[in-house]
């Protein structure tokens, strides 16, 4: 184990919860792989290829794979009682089909969802995390962005960015509310969430937030 890995491990307290906190959340900012993109997979890959070229795309893919390897290594050394762990996942709606969705994504090659299945097999509880309505809005916005060229007018670009930021904020508020309402005293949540999100201002103060790598944004 490297010195960096030992440092990360020391950041994560074991089962005891420190004074002032009744719950804790282990927060992993993540980068999505192509397998996570679902119906947008080909469009995202094409746009990335146009922007970065084949060499750049290859470097990015290797870097993302390394991030997931690091996440898996950190989780493997956590001393957790998985029957007191809840899993919260970027893009997973509250819908009653959470386990089915995760299984389908894992079979499509998503390392993120494969890891979720492994943790579930150890007793962790999978939680629907996002608003289905907000995810549909996000999907439609992403599809429109990928389909069209970047707007030339500064005002149009600024308006599009403002709408995107507002939607991201609403998603963050919903996700935080979901964690606040479902993570029980004495439990640990593990959150996998894209790097552009920022939840901490919306989480209840009795939740200790732990970042094994770094804070998002």
Explain what the structure shows.
This protein is of the alpha/beta class and 217 residues long. It has one domain. It contains 6 helices and 5 strands. The chain is globular and about 50 Å long. Helix 5 packs antiparallel against helix 6. A 5-stranded parallel β-sheet has the order 3-2-4-1-5, with helices on one face.
Q: Which helices and strands, and how do they pair?
A:
Elements: H1 3-10, E1 23-30, H2 41-76, E2 85-89, H3 98-107, H4 111-121, E3 125-127, H5 132-147, H6 154-182, E4 188-194, E5 207-210
Parallel strand pairs: 1-4, 1-5, 2-3, 2-4
Summarize the structure.
Helices cover 51% and strands 12% of the residues.
Mean pLDDT: 84
Total discrete domains: 1
- Low-confidence sequence ranges: 1-10
CA-based shape: globular
End-to-end Cα distance, whole Å, is 28 Å
* H/E series: HEHEHHEHHEE
Main sheet specs: 5 strands, parallel
Rg calculated over all Cα atoms: 18 Å
Strand order of the largest sheet: 3-2-4-1-5
Say how many strands there are. Answer: 5
Tell me the β content.
5-15%
Continuous helix count: 6
The helix content, as a percent range, equals: 40-55%
Structural class: alpha/beta
Structural key phrases:
single chain, 217 residues, alpha/beta, 5-stranded parallel β-sheet, 6 helices, 51% helix, globular
């Amino acid at each position: 184990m490297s010195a960096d890995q030992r440092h990360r491990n020391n950041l994560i307290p074991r089962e005891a919860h420190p004074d002032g906190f009744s719950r804790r959340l282990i927060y992993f900012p993540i980068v999505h792989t192509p397998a996570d993109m679902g119906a947008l997979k080909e469009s995202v890959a094409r746009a990335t290829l146009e922007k970065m070229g084949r060499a750049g795309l290859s470097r990015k893919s290797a870097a993302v794979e390394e991030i997931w390897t690091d996440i898996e290594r950190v989780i493997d050394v956590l001393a957790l009682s998985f029957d007191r762990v809840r899993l919260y996942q970027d893009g997973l709606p509250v819908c009653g089909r959470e386990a089915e969705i995760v299984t389908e994504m894992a079979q499509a090659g998503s390392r993120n969802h494969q890891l979720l299945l492994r943790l579930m097999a150890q007793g962790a509880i999978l939680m629907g995390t996002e608003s289905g309505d907000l995810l549909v809005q996000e999907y439609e916005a992403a599809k429109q962005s990928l389909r069209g060229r970047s707007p030339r007018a500064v005002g149009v670009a600024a308006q599009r960015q403002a709408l995107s930021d507002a939607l991201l904020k609403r998603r963050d508020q919903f996700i935080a509310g979901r964690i606040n309402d479902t993570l029980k005293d004495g439990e640990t949540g593990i959150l996998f969430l894209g790097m552009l999100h920022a939840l901490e201002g919306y989480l209840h103060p009795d939740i200790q937030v732990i970042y094994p790598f770094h804070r998002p944004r």
